[in-house]
Amino acid sequence: MPLFHTYKVANAQKMLFKALLLFLLFRFCESRDTITWNQEQLKDGGGVLVSKQSKFELGFFSPGNSSYRYVGIWYSQTEVSNKTVVWVANRNNPINDTSGVLTINRYGELVLYAYNMESTPIWSTYVSRSVQNVNTTTLSAQLLDTGNLVVFQDNNNEISIWQSFDHPTDTLIRGMKVGVNWKSGQEWVLTSWKSQDDPGTGDYTLRLYPNQIASPQFFMYKGSSKYWRSDTGPIDFVTNQEETYYLMNGTNTITRATVTDSAVERLTWDDGGLQWEEDFSAPKSRCDWYGQCGANSKCSPDNVNVFWCDCLPGYVPKSISDWNHKNGTGGCVSNRLGLLKCGDGDGFVKVARVKYPDTSIGALLKSGMSAKECEQECLRNCSCTAYLSTEYEGLVDCLTWYDDLMDILVYTEVGQDLYVRVNATVLAANARRSEGFLERRGMLAIPILSAVLALVLIIMLACWWGKKNRNTKGIDFVEADELVENQTNPELQFFDLDTIIAATDHFSRVNELGHGGFGSVYKGQLPNEEKVAVKRLSQTSGQGIKEFKNEVAVIARLQHRNLVKLLGCCIKGEERILVLEYMPNKSLNSFLFDSTRRSFLDWEKRFEIINGIARGILYLHQDSRLRIIHRDLKTSNILLDTKMNPKISDFGMARIFHGDQLQDKTSRIVGTYGYMSPEYAIFGRFSTKSDIFSFGIIMLEIVSGRKNNGYDLEDPSMNLIGRVWELWGEGRALDIVDSTLKSYKPNEVMRCIQVALLCVQEDSKDRPAISAIVFMLSGELSPPLPKHPAFVYRRDFSADVDPLLPNGSDSVNDLTITTMEVR
Ligand SMILES: *[C@@H]1O[C@H](CO)[C@@H](O)[C@H](O)[C@H]1NC(C)=O
Ligand SMILES: *[C@@H]1O[C@H](CO)[C@@H](O)[C@H](O)[C@H]1NC(C)=O
Ligand SMILES: *[C@@H]1O[C@H](CO)[C@@H](O)[C@H](O)[C@H]1NC(C)=O
Ligand SMILES: *[C@@H]1O[C@H](CO)[C@@H](O)[C@H](O)[C@H]1NC(C)=O
Ligand SMILES: *[C@@H]1O[C@H](CO)[C@@H](O)[C@H](O)[C@H]1NC(C)=O
Ligand SMILES: *[C@@H]1O[C@H](CO)[C@@H](O)[C@H](O)[C@H]1NC(C)=O
Ligand SMILES: *[C@@H]1O[C@H](CO)[C@@H](O)[C@H](O)[C@H]1NC(C)=O
Ligand SMILES: *[C@@H]1O[C@H](CO)[C@@H](O)[C@H](O)[C@H]1NC(C)=O
């Protein structure tokens, strides 16, 4: 209770302070936001333009230690206390004294004069003179609250003829784009400052390579050479007939992206710490620099002690001596006799988990081609050097390359498999090598066994050491390995594979309960007649092993009536199997979204389920010995027992936090569209507050009986959050309640909707902790008013929708996104 009290007081004080400041500004500085023709100019020393709600200011300034004067736009003091310039007008033409004046001429062009320099303008904008008929009495340049300086030609400020957002300097803020307009040829590019004292055009640029055949890539250039290349991520771009661009959008926090002379950074203003906090920065690790290893080679950032560059199969270093001196920039060449002659025996060697080659060099994309067809497509053409088959939201794409393969980075967990073309000799040698490897593995069984024992010892030591040094990243996996490999946990039963096979009748189709991202779940009966659920990890998913160990380690330690109980596991050869408590009623979604089964869930039951899930999360987040972030909460992961008590399941993606760790970051985003919080989906940042977001969605789905990403007949552009937020604003929130609920307690339902809206607020800091939620649901604490939620719109492939909203389409509602690169 006191928590919220102080929260309100602090907020009220802050607002009062802002109001007072605004008042003072209006009172004494006569702040204004426009320049008009022939009347209002802006003189150096004559104040600044302040946008309506005091978000941004425009005026004359001197950067760093410089004494030169520039016209620029910066966040106002009330927003960002450390003066941060986001745009500079005369970046390459400074004024050497304070005689500058910014005016607007009769064509609607902004012009900067310095009176001691006669009448030649220092700087001006250019407006096509075909716009002849501007009415000068209605011309104005206005600084908007978005930070955009716009020249309007009409009284109502509707028709703009120029805007600063179209001429970025080194910084991208919300509403600005990086990309190309195909029609006008206009390109939006960021360019670094020369130095902290000189905003002049520097050497580094960030531009989008608008590859119309493959997904666009960001490039950072140093001069005219490539310096860094982004990973391709489909959520970040908007492409239509006219334009291809990346748009900063989607958060209400103060966020900017800036190109400096060493990196591109995305930063968010931390109102508490009064500093910019880094969300993203690149290049960072050795292999991020473009061409660190030259053509036809791959770079492995983790090879710390050995050389990080390695030729692709079938290629050899261009210069052996460079290679021996750990200089990989020369790259590798093929000694096949001319790329254009290819023999019958050509084939492909897989290079697993890579950041795929630069698609701006001789690449082609064809959609709707299976992996096999893609292989044939590449094999058919002698100049095809490699192919890659990708699948995204059910669409299969085939990428083929017809030139040198550049900028390949090898990941350990993420990435895609690239297939490199080789001739028959290399193909055969490669096959022999992998066979040989297997044989050697057999011969070396004993030495390997002792090595494993030594490793276990080292891991145990590491754990002991790790406990002394908490917060070490990845320690949960080490602990998981220890737990599984030593088989020491007394509570955990280890089953024979034969027992499991008998229990599930050879994993028969009849017994299959469901099919998840990492394998299948079967119903089984143990010799003592106990019914169990058997989760069998698919053997092909190499990455699943890690999740498996993780899941075992996590659930083995958890005991709570709202969590699914782990009875044991089975590890034999390639088999990884979990034996879990059997839930006869399957999952919550099988009731909620089924036209007949949903009637079993009356309001009383639904309210109990909501409270049960909340208690389960409370245990995970606060009450258990560990702090556990589930990361994939959704209705299909809530199972129901015979009495319809909810039990949280599927801990394959859970993370353990140690001590007072509050937040972590991952480059590997796992979760489900529609349930992921914005900071997780976009930046890979997860915390207890990302679970809270998912819980908010679950509550809304329980109350309404609709899927968050389901189709809304009244407004197809909107998802469930959007619909509820709209109804809430109109005071009609109860309209969202599932029509099959014959009777319900309106105050309980309202409370759930309000709490759910608090959970899905855009800013993670605003979302309540699970303990507060439990109190609010019980009515012991009255919930505050929710702010604007995140992700109000559905993902739409046709129009100009917010590219940062990763909502799924109907067909992928329950698909788990296993890998989505955010770098
Ligand atoms: C500005 O000058 C001071 C003193 O000469 C120096 O310490 C500081 O590094 C300079 N700052 C910049 C950004 O050049
Ligand atoms: C203000 O920002 C600059 C650049 O972002 C940084 O170097 C400086 O330390 C900051 N100053 C304060 C007082 O935080
Ligand atoms: C500023 O520049 C002008 C034009 O180059 C020059 O005439 C003037 O002397 C300079 N003033 C100072 C104070 O350097
Ligand atoms: C310009 O706009 C003003 C105000 O709307 C109007 O009174 C005036 O007649 C216009 N002048 C011309 C030449 O259209
Ligand atoms: C295949 O390529 C290797 C080297 O990449 C070369 O040594 C060999 O002669 C080639 N074999 C044929 C049949 O072209
Ligand atoms: C690496 O080799 C290239 C030529 O292949 C050369 O131009 C470059 O200077 C070398 N770099 C270093 C650090 O020796
Ligand atoms: C192979 O592909 C390249 C690039 O698409 C193309 O220019 C060339 O004509 C193709 N060659 C054949 C024989 O199809
Ligand atoms: C960007 O976000 C704003 C509000 O957050 C929204 O009104 C606008 O439509 C979005 N722009 C795009 C292109 O989606």
From TrEMBL:
It catalyses: L-seryl-[protein] + ATP = O-phospho-L-seryl-[protein] + ADP + H(+); L-threonyl-[protein] + ATP = O-phospho-L-threonyl-[protein] + ADP + H(+). GO terms for molecular function: ATP binding; protein serine kinase activity; protein serine/threonine kinase activity. It is a single-pass type I membrane protein. It is found in: Cell membrane. PROSITE patterns: BULB_LECTIN, PAN, PROTEIN_KINASE_ATP, PROTEIN_KINASE_DOM, PROTEIN_KINASE_ST. SMART domains: B_lectin (SM00108), PAN_AP (SM00473), S_TKc (SM00220). GO terms for biological process: recognition of pollen. One of its GO terms (cellular component) is plasma membrane. The chain crosses the membrane at residues 442-465. PANTHER family: NON-SPECIFIC SERINE_THREONINE PROTEIN KINASE, RECEPTOR-LIKE SERINE/THREONINE-PROTEIN KINASE SD1-8. This is Receptor-like serine/threonine-protein kinase. It comes from Rosa chinensis.
